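Two proteins, back to back. First:
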Amino acid sequence: MLAIRLSEAIENRLNALAQETGRTKTTLAREAILEYIDDLEDYYLAESRARKNRKTIPLDDVERQLGLGH
């Protein structure tokens, strides 16, 4: 069970969409959350894995390798 507070503007949009589509607000909210959570999971898992496997190189070394040293 989840209860959330929505701004009046979002509530109005959700109501209008529900009326227009014949779906319930709960169904629309569930669909929106499922769509968004898939993207969030992908992003955060990729970010976490990248951080674990990241080997850093000091900027001075990169500049020297590219011939950009001062």
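And the second protein:
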Amino acid sequence: MAKDDKFKETLGDRLRGLRLDAGLTLMQLAEKSGVSYRTVIDIEKGETRPSVEVIRLLCTALDYSLSDFFKFKY
């Protein structure tokens, strides 16, 4: 697995975990953040590398800091 693929997979797992901890569905997170439903799915599946702005919007919707979001190992 390429390093970028592993990063995207880990990022998706992180987002999924935070979303589930918040008790939100994919659709609820999309609506709350203003990020498209399809984009949220693609991030969680590790199929896309989101911009920092998209991650910021998702973190705001999850009431989670951007700096804490990136505290993971891959």
